[in-house]
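Changelog-adjacent note: as of this version, every example in the card shows the full chain rather than a window. The one below runs 319 residues end to end.
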Amino acid sequence: MRRLGALATGPVIPHQSASAVILVRPTGFGYDPETAASNEFQQRIPVDDARRSAAEEFDGLLEALRRCGIGFTVLDPFHPGAPNGVFPNNWFSTHADGTVVLYPMLTPSRRAERDPDLARALEAEGFTVRQTIDISGWEHHGRILEGTGSLVLDRLKRRAYACLSPRTTEAALTAWCDRLGHSPIAFTATMDGRINGAPIYHTNVVMSLGTDWALVCFDALPYPGDRQEVEEELARSGREVIAFDLPQLYRFVGNALELRGASGACILLSETAFHALKPFQRIALERHARLIPVAVPTIEAIGGGSVRCMMAENFLSRA
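Full-length structure tokens:
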């Protein structure tokens, strides 16, 4: 894995949000029928030179990060032809104690993205990696957990929210929480909010957590008990809860990420999501952070993921 330039950041201390991110260039970007089987956001649509469009959208996200003063490290993909390589947060996560976790993925096309030498690559960039926890072998036993796509973490309260799906199995969630010292909050979420509806592939399109706020699509949770548990847990966390509806879910409103910029907190989201926000939701979010919309229409339509999926938070400290 060849490393590209990074902005320097200071030591990482425990926070809900990171001050730096890790991204992977979309060199092999394209429609992936393997992942489309469990991701209803993906669309097989004709786009002239989709890879060029994806590269331009990727560069637009880098420019937004620069403007906000958010550190970033850009990596070339381990597998240059991986169609979903632009979504690295699914195969690894970093943690403030210096831990890197490698995750079990559902499809062979996503498993090919994983770089077993990621820790060395990050150390070469000047970050301190104290340990690597490689749980990728779970995928051979049907235990799937796709990083911070599957897990929406309350890092302050050590809670792990997860909507169960083929990409997020309860056995893997429980085992991860036992290993990393979190409490699991598992629930069902479907594309139409009905009990027999298609499962939503990743939790990070259903909800997003910032330091003092939470975006949640309660309409996607068909079971009242699940809704109550999530509501009560968020209330105990002290966050302002901002609900959004199913049409907004399809526009990636929940796929937002709070980061700490040079001038304060920022919430990065796509232009699609930004324009779908209702005035009261936008006002509520802007009480907590500056909204930074980024145009990624090609990546959203063909890849089925949005801005949050393109960034793996970097909680590692500088050596």
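Structural remarks: The CA atoms of residues 264 and 289 lie 7 Å apart.
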